[in-house]
Amino acid sequence: MVRSVADRAFLPTKGLLEEVGDMMILTGKTLMSALRPPYPYGEEFVSQFLFALRLCWLPLTITMIAIDYGAPGLQAGNFLVLFGALDRLGGFFVLATIREFAPNVCAIIMAGVAGTAITADLGARKIREELDALQVLGVDPVKNIVVPRFLALMLVTGLFDVYAIIFGLFGGVLASLQFQAPLGPFFATLLTNASTTDLWGSVLKTTMFGAIVAIVCCYKGMTASGGAEGVGRAVNQAVVIAFLGVFAFNYVFTQTLLATHPEILVIK
After folding, report:
1. Between the N and C ends of the chain, which has fewer C-beta atoms within 10 Å?
2. Which long-range contacts (CB under 8 A, 24 or more apart) does 249-252 make?
3. What tens digit of pLDDT does each residue of 172-230 get?
4. How many domains does the chain have?
5. pTM of the model as a whole
6. Angle, helices 102-109/227-260, rounded to nearest 10 degrees
């Protein structure tokens, strides 16, 4: 009886660890399939890239302008005004937008818009047994389905990071204009504090976020079961797990970057 109770208590943890292990295996298979010839997924890669680009650019634009205008813009500006240091707002945007807001918003938008579409598509194929039919025909689902989505989401998410930084800084410009402050000090402190480490670290981190979202969403879609209800459940689980994976990786990456480049902590 005690063993039965213990099994039921630890069953969710066991299931989570098994899923994480399966996702790591899928990641390894995806990387090997992407590097090993032949490369039959070029058309599918372009299609998925344009699909994610078309779905995500508008939500990303609106979200970045709204968030950066409100949180690091108006709220940080109100705080800096108390000390007569509104000219430091640009330096704060390096910390807020380039390092954190832009990568995380890109990952959230990508998981919530493109990731859910991928999970629903693959889940529908799974319950219609299309994926099993491909394997019977000798077609590798990982190389022909997972790899193009994996590469497309990595590329589009990394590119979207630069796009998000631009519109995030535009939100900061709007906030500076709201305080009737000149834009010269904003850009002066922004360029003084920004470094190539900030930029490449932000783009690299966001690219890895795209890889995490792609693997999680493809895995949940390809393992969906239980009809339409199961597909809906897989979509919900994919979003939650993708967010958890992104936030966990963000913590590890940020700590590693700060440990190797402690100078980026200083705001001049």
Report:
1. N
2. 249/205, 249/208, 249/209, 249/212, 250/100, 250/103, 250/104, 250/205, 250/209
3. 888 888 888 888 888 888 888 888 888 888 999 999 999 999 999 999 999 998 888 88
4. 1
5. 0.89
6. 170
16 within domain boundaries: no
Q: Angle at which helices 102-109 and 147-178 pack, to 10 degrees?
A: 130
Position 179 in a domain: yes
Both tokens assigned to 91: 């330096």
Is the link from the previous residue into 38 a cis peptide, with omega within 30 of 0? yes
Q: What is the length of the chain?
A: 268
| One-letter identity of residue 98 | I
In a domain, 89, yes or no: yes
Give the domain extent around 180: 22-31+46-260
Contact assessment for residue 110 and residue 213, using Cβ atoms and an 8 Å cutoff: yes
| Distance, CA of 90 to CA of 73 (rounded, Å) | 9
Torsion of CA 211, 217, 219, 220, to 10 degrees: 160
Whether residue 37 is contained in a domain is answered as no
**Is 103 in contact with 205 (CB distance < 8 Å)?**
yes
Token pair belonging to 10: 């630890």
Mean pLDDT of 155-177: 91
The answer to whether residue 7 scores a pLDDT higher than 60 is no
Rounded CA separation 180/191 (Å): 21
Average pLDDT of span 127-156:
89
Handedness of CA 60, 65, 66, 67 (dihedral sign): positive
